Amino acid sequence: MISVHMKLNEILRVRHSFAHGFSIPAYSWTQSPNGRVRLTSKALSDVGAFFDHLVRVTDNGMKQHIEQTYSIRLAW
What pTM did the predictor assign? Predict the structure, then answer.
């Protein structure tokens, strides 16, 4: 299983390559079974789900930190 850090790094490298017109890097999620490098709608959906998860756990961690540090209750 790939770490969150490595997955984020791969996503940012793909984004950089796409944005600047470079060849997209070959990762397991950017390659078809025959080895062709491409971005599929499933890969993009998976990236969206990755960021949804990352934002959710970051928000929860920040909320917990603020509540414990400042002894307050947050509604979000």
Answer: 0.85
> What is the residue extent of each domain of the chain?
4-70
Q: Could you report the per-residue pLDDT of 11-69, keeping only the tens digit for each? A: 999 999 999 999 999 999 999 999 999 999 999 999 999 999 999 999 999 999 999 99
Radius of gyration of the CA atoms of the chain, in A: 17
Max CA distance (Å), the chain: 56
Rounded CA separation 51/44 (Å)? 11
Burial track 7-30 (b if 16+ CB lie within 10 A, e otherwise): beebbeebeeeeeeeeebeebebb
> Which amino acid does the sequence have at 53?
H
